[in-house]
Amino acid sequence: MQKRGAVLNRTEFLAPVAALILLVWAGGAFYLNNEISKTRKEYLKKEETTARYEALKALWSEEANKKALKQMETMLRMYGIKPEVESKKGKRSYTFSVKAPQADRVLKKLLNSNIRIGRFTAKKISEDTLKVHVEVLR
Amino acid sequence: MIYRYFSGFTNDIGSGKELALYYIRENGTIIKDTPAETVVLSPSLYWYAHADLPARSVAKAKKLADSVLASRPSSYTSIHVEKRGNGFDCYAFDENRVESLIPDSVAKTAPRYFLQQFSDQMPLRIDDTLIADTINGICIEIHEESRSIPSLDSIDIKSLAKPFNKSTSKSVSSWMAALFVVLLLTAAGTDLALRYQTLNALKQKSAANDSRKTMYEIKALSKKYRKIDSEQKRLRSAIKKALDSHMKLLECDAKKGCSFE
Fold first, then answer.
1. How far away is chain A from the Cα of B94, in angstroms, using its nearest Cα?
2. Can you give the pTM of this predicted structure?
3. B83 shares contact with chain A (CB less than 8 Å)
4. Within an 8 Å CB–CB cutoff, is residue B243 touching chain A?
5. Which residues pair with A117 in a beta bridge?
6. More confidently predicted of B8 and B84
7. Does A51 touch chain B (CB under 8 A)?
8. How many domains are contained in chain A?
9. Do A81 and A131 fall into the same domain?
């Protein structure tokens, strides 16, 4: 009879034990779900910020600026333009004359590049010649 | 023939329910008022034997009990087995006969016991002339009027094993309970471990930074680059606009804007 009683006691003990396990499970799952959701949000925000930073860095970082300057110099050479270059405290000035047929294309390429323009001057010196002065920030 | 004995408890007659202990005998039912409806079978209605069966579970013992109770009347086809000490208490009874003797007013779900199941609480007075006692561990009814002993309605039902009309298969055996707990623990553990793993992977992924810059630096640089970007876009659009208007002199500054003649 005692053994049978013990079985009964164990059986009666099962419900609270199972309830306790379920409670711990539910509590743990709720806590972990919250943490996962919080961490995922943080991660996505971080990823978004980093991606935006990388995109802007590719355009306006010092390395990108140097590369853009080289591309601009190459482009000017391709059009047979030899600019006067002057360097001053973090700035570099390019002064060059461009003939009318080339002016549109040269200026378009110059403005579409990602050089950091500080100052830009264009002066019509004759009917078909334009004198351009570009001050590039570094 | 039904005998009724009152022992101080109030019946719930008003509500149509009579909670009582029904002592079922071959030649009559004795009713004792108790707080819970209970049915007790007299030894005249069952066959009992205690046996050390080579079985661990009650289910296996039940299969072997048939041979232990071989000398029982042929109509006693229903068998009930329960563990007791190192052996098993085996009971056989005629279910149809028992059913026919139990009054219709008794609920089908009322717990039913064999008198033998109260052997630890013997002797007990059944009525004025009858007492229940044990001889060699077996409960029997004896005609005795003089002895002053506790009445049948004083039995402690809570200390008893399961009533025989509650199927043992419905009760959860200890190993089943242990298995259930283990399964539940395993499921909970696995689930929580997987969730933790996901969280850890996310944290590691979030901590990994290719640019070797802190988020503070990244945010500060992003702000700086955004400022340059908007300034340059503004300047370029102003230059393009001015160039389209066939000017003689154009002067543009990143901060001041454009002026032209």
1. 24
2. 0.51
3. yes
4. yes
5. A136
6. B84
7. no
8. 2
9. yes
CB pairs under 8 A between A and B: 147
Average pLDDT over residues B1-25: 52
A117: CATH: 3.30.70.60
Cis before B123? omega within 30:
yes
Name the pLDDT band for B132 (thresholds 50, 70, 90): confident
Query: In this structure, are A76 and A52 located in the same domain?
Result: no
Same domain, A53 and A72: no
SS (H, E, C) A10-40: HHHHHHHHHHHHHHHHHHHHHHHHHHHHHHH
**Which residue range is the domain that position A1 belongs to?**
1-60
Same domain for A81 and A122, yes or no, is: yes
Q: What is the pLDDT of residues A59-84, one digit of tens each?
A: 999 899 999 999 999 999 999 999 99
Token pair, residue B37, equals 């409806």
Q: What is the predicted pLDDT for the residue at B64?
A: 83
Which of A32, A60, A88 is the C-terminal boundary of a domain?
A60
- Asked whether the beta carbons of residue A121 and residue B247 sit closer than 8 angstroms, the reply is no
Which among A35, A36, A124 has the least Cβ separation from residue B248? Answer: A124
Q: Is B84 on the interface with A (CB under 8 A)?
A: yes
Q: Which residues, other chains included, contact A17 with Cβ-Cβ below 8 Å and sequence gap of 6+?
A: B181
pLDDT band at residue B172 using 50, 70 and 90 as cut-offs? low
Q: In terms of domains, do A68 and A50 share one?
A: no
Give the residue extent of every domain in chain B. Answer: 2-171, 177-260
Q: Return the bridge partners of B40, or none.
A: B23, B113
pLDDT at B169: 46
Residue A77 at interface with chain B, using a CB cutoff of 8 Å: no
